[in-house]
């Protein structure tokens, strides 16, 4: 690798790293995988071999307790924390401790959500900011080419008619692929924190002006770049339910596969939230988000919409107007798409998912920003704002009342599924 190449060090190599972030490096000139750390060293070694075979770098391999060694590697310029939610704070502590001991690091990027709760998020942001290290929030939806282009066109051509006033996002699949997602205390919640953090972040960006005017000083300029500034969230209403996975048949499956008891200690597998914003003129703007782990179909199903006075736009992940689907209960085979739950019937082909899913763009943004010594277009403060909306949604669902974001202190709030 040339001396100018930016070396990424990954903390953890689960699905999102192995299938999305690592392949995205192949689309980024002057970037390589410099190191991989994972609690199971053998898994890190396997991914490192794949990197070498695909000319993505010659990464050093690190096992459990070796995050500091990863950071101290002179070939690692930036650390991408993609580890399970319950490890995030400890991972950041280990990285910052290494920096304070003399390691050189240009930036830290963190996969969504930034933490399990606002206490952890504050600790993470404070430690990284305290060390003076640029940071980026890895939320891929706003970076997806189809979503970015929709936003750009609607704002550009519809601005004269008036700003968009409704963003809707729905995402659902058959359930997480790793055991820790199902444990409320480890994940920090259920489907709401897993799914709606995407939808709420995407909606916020869609509703935010990409070219703010002088009377909207809170919004940074950014052309068609995603931004999560410029609107004030005022209140949140929400509902959560456990619709499928607490039923005896499916709860037994979870006990056997993931060692979690959804009959006596369930987390939500369905959630919906509505965020009411006010724009710079005090006019209402609405974000509607829903998500579930209850969908039986060919992978992930998503719909993203943006509506204004004389225009609308839509991005649909599942475009088939008619299809037939059989679950693995009547068919068997090997899947080839994210969250695929069966291998018969109509199946998705996940070609270039790192590109179409926004991972190339978000990682390019992070690397370019770190090289300039700046935070990413979406940074960890954006991640903390989205997490606050998730916490407000859980509180609204728990109390059955709207949460006034201008008066409610959520700094110590823990969602019901995450309580010990």
TrEMBL record:
An example Gene Ontology molecular-function term: nucleotide binding
Domain Gfo/Idh/MocA-like oxidoreductase C-terminal: 181-405
Segments forming domain Gfo/Idh/MocA-like oxidoreductase N-terminal: 7-129
Region (Disordered): 206-240
Key words of the record: Oxidoreductase
Pfam annotation, one family: GFO_IDH_MocA
Keyword Nucleotide-binding: no
Name listed for the protein in its UniProt record: Gfo/Idh/MocA family oxidoreductase
């Amino acid at each position: 690798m040339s001396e100018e190449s930016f070396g990424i060090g990954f903390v953890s190599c689960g699905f999102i790293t192995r299938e999305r972030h690592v392949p995205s490096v192949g689309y980024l000139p002057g970037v390589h995988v410099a190191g991989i750390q994972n609690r199971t060293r053998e898994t890190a070694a396997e991914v490192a071999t794949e990197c070498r075979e695909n000319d993505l770098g010659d990464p050093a391999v690190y096992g459990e307790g070796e995050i500091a060694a990863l950071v101290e590697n002179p070939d690692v310029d930036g650390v991408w924390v993609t580890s399970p939610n319950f490890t995030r704070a400890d991972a950041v502590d280990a990285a910052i401790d290494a920096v304070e001991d003399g390691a050189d690091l240009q930036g830290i990027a963190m996969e969504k959500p930034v933490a399990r709760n606002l206490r952890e998020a504050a600790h993470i942001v404070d430690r990284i900011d305290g060390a003076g290290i640029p940071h980026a929030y890895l939320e891929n939806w706003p970076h997806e080419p189809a979503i970015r282009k929709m936003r750009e066109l609607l704002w550009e051509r519809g601005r004269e008619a008036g700003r968009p006033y409704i963003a809707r996002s729905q995402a659902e699949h058959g359930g997480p692929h790793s055991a820790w997602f199902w444990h409320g205390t480890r994940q920090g919640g259920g489907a709401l924190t897993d799914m709606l953090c995407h939808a709420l972040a995407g909606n916020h960006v869609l509703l935010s002006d990409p070219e703010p005017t002088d009377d909207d000083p809170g919004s940074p300029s950014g052309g068609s770049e995603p931004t999560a500034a410029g609107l004030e969230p005022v209140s949140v209403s929400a509902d959560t339910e456990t619709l499928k996975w607490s039923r005896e048949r499916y709860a037994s499956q979870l006990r056997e596969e993931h060692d979690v008891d959804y009959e006596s200690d369930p987390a939500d597998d369905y959630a919906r939230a509505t965020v009411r914003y006010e724009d710079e003129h005090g006019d209402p703007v609405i974000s509607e988000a829903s998500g579930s782990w209850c969908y039986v179909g060919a992978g992930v199903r998503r719909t993203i919409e943006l509506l204004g006075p004389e225009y609308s736009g839509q991005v649909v992940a599942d475009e088939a107007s008619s299809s037939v689907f059989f679950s693995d209960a009547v068919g068997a085979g090997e899947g080839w798409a994210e969250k695929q739950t069966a291998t018969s019937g109509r199946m998705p082909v996940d070609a270039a998912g790192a590109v179409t899913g926004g991972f190339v763009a978000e990682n390019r943004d992070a690397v370019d920003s770190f090289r300039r010594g700046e935070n990413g277009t979406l940074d960890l403060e954006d991640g903390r704002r989205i997490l606050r909306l998730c916490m407000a949604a859980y509180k609204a669902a728990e109390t059955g009342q709207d949460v006034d974001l201008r008066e409610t202190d959520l700094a110590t709030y823990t969602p019901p599924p995450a309580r010990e």
